[in-house]
Specification:
Largest sheet: none
Distance between the termini: 41 Å
Oligomer: single chain
Strand content: under 5%
Helix content: over 70%
Radius of gyration: 18 Å
Order of helices and strands: HHHHH
Structural class: mainly alpha
Number of strands: 0
Length: 161
């Protein structure tokens, strides 16, 4: 019995360690938002044009993404309007890139709309992770906040709540 408990504790510790990694948390948040955006896109496409449906769905997903990534992925300070502003800049650029890429995939490659939206979102995700990590959710100090419980290399940060 002792061996089984030790294995469970080890696997539980491994999961905790894995979830502590920013890219893993970003992928989880992204997956939740991805499904939401895709569902909203498919629903809105029944009544709206292709770029408008994609932009609205992406914007709604971005609002959820901001809060989840701010708190969980990057452990950024609460109520930081500078971070919100940087997030909006990155998100607007991502929406524009998504709309352009989506239209190009559908028009030039005659890809099905849902498949094109999936591919567009998958292409944009690594770029947005890097932008959020290095600029959008950076701490006010010289270092980056890695999680609510890990100090930064600079002045440090707290969750503030």
């Amino acid at each position: 019995m002792g061996g089984r408990n030790a294995r469970m504790a080890t696997s539980s510790g491994a999961v905790s360690l894995l979830l502590a990694a920013q890219p893993v948390r970003f992928v989880i948040v992204g997956g939740v938002c991805f499904v939401s955006v895709l569902s909203l896109f498919a629903l809105m496409r029944l009544a709206l044009t292709l770029p408008l449906a994609a932009a609205i769905a992406y914007a709604i997903g971005a609002a959820a993404s901001f809060e989840l990534n701010r708190r969980w992925t990057f452990g950024a300070a609460a109520r930081d309007w500078d971070q919100a502003g940087r997030f909006v800049v990155i998100t607007v650029a991502a929406i524009a890139l998504n709309g352009w890429l989506l239209q190009a995939l559908v028009t030039a490659l005659t890809a099905p709309e849902i498949a094109a939206e999936i591919l567009a979102l998958l292409c944009i995700a690594p770029l947005t992770f890097l932008a959020y990590r290095h600029w959008g959710f950076r701490s006010d100090g010289p270092g980056l906040t890695l999680s609510p419980s890990v100090a930064t290399s600079g002045a440090g940060a707290t969750d503030g709540e």
